[in-house]
Amino acid sequence: MYLYRQQQQLERVKKWLKLRNRDTDHRTKVEERRKKREEEAKVCSLLYIYINKQNFFLLFFLVFKAKFDEILRREKEREQRTNSQITVNLR
């Protein structure tokens, strides 16, 4: 009878250890997946920031170029008006 109880106790301990290890393995896998998602999110956010910076500089360049082209156009128009006034005054 004593051996039978010890055997039952041993079986219960084995079962408990098996369940505990299964839970531990599950928690470890869940934690690994969470860390992987966090790393992917960090990479995505850094890429998003990089792309937005690139877009900002591109937009800044385009606005700057448009303003520069407008200044050049105005300067040419002013020069043409000045030249036409000079030719009118010479006649």
What does this structure look like?
The chain has one domain (1-91). The chain is mainly α and 91 residues long. It has one helix and no strands. Helices cover 98% and strands 0% of the residues. It has one helix spanning 2-90.
Question: What's a concise summary of this model?
Answer:
This protein has 91 residues and is mainly α. It is 98% helix and 0% strand. The chain is built from 1 helix and no strands.
Please name the defining characteristics of this protein:
rod-shaped, mainly alpha, 0% strand
* Tally of contiguous helical segments: 1
Report the end-to-end length measured between terminal Cα atoms. Answer: 134 Å
- Number of E strands: 0
Biggest β-sheet: count, sense, barrel? none
- What structural category characterises the helix and strand content? mainly alpha
Mean pLDDT: 86
Write the layout of secondary structure elements.
Blueprint: H1 2-90
